[in-house]
Amino acid sequence: MKVTVLVRLKSEVLDPQGDAVRRALDKLGFNGVRSVRVGKLIEIDVDERVAGADIKEHLAKMADEMLANPVIEDYEVV
Amino acid sequence: MKVTVLVRLKSEVLDPQGDAVRRALDKLGFNGVRSVRVGKLIEIDVDERVAGADIKEHLAKMADEMLANPVIEDYEVV
Fold this sequence. Notes:
The structure is a homodimer. Chain A has a three-stranded antiparallel beta sheet with strand order 2-1-3. Chain A has one domain (2-77): Mth169, Chain: A, CATH 3.30.1280.10. By secondary structure, the first copy, chain A, is of the alpha+beta class. Chain A has helices at residues 16-27, 48-51, 55-67, and strands at 2-9, 33-46, 73-77. The mean pLDDT of chain A is 92. Chain A is built from three helices and three strands, in the order E-H-E-H-H-E. Strand 2 (33-46) of chain A pairs antiparallel with strand 2 (33-46) of chain B, so a sheet runs across the interface.
């Protein structure tokens, strides 16, 4: 079973990587870019027989403990 | 206008970061994870008046030139 976890910096956390991308786009001539935020796209192939019925809970635990830093990031299991 | 660009490594490209995450999950006791691939989630706030009507094309050009490395990565504008 394939699941996707999207990890985003919380909106109150500065994103220097995103700002660098925004400036670079501007220099390349792409005007009108107001802001850029860079997060992570994590695609996981899980064996559903092992993860069990509570797979959503299992994935949330994974994201909390390993995939995202809950102090500065939010995640979403898709 | 907010748009999301998903950047993934092409399937034939090795992903050492994803492999490290898979091994770490296994060590933390999350069994049954077959594979992990890590990509980028880029959220862009574009001024649609500047980008014009061909905003999809504008974004595809951005992704080709700056957001993704077309040699090893694929992108998707959502």
